[in-house]
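User: I'm new to structure prediction. If I give you an amino acid sequence, what do you actually give back? Let's try with this one:
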Amino acid sequence: MNKAAEGAAVAAAQAFLLAFNAQDHAALAASLNYPHVRLAVGKFVTYDSAEAFLVRCKVNKAQLEAEGWHHTNTNVIEIIQSGPDKVHLRLEIDRCHEDDTVYNKFDTLWIATRQDGHWGIQFRSSYLR
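Assistant: Good question. You get back a string of structure tokens that encode the predicted 3D arrangement of the chain. For your 129 residues, that looks like this:
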């Protein structure tokens, strides 16, 4: 295990989650490393650049609004494995309405990587339904 890498990876995950709750798309894009890969609902999607990711953010925002999303709570961020340039994280996520009612609870695996000194989330695989 690599404590420095673990701290940087958790910080990258927290930066993503804070930006997600704020719907700050520029900060979301900056919290990732590219190419960024997401596996959800049985499909792989690859974003080759921050610009490509930002295009998808607009679609995602509309979907979140349609489902009544207000915020996301992160119940667990657990280090599974770590090395000097890569950390595997397990997260437990709740999507919530404004009254804090949980309407979607899911587990997700994220991989944080260090590219040119920047720690970011490079892979997300969730059981989002």
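You can read the tokens as a compact description of the fold. Here is one thing that stands out. The domain at 3-126 is CATH 3.10.450.50 (Nuclear Transport Factor 2; Chain: A,).
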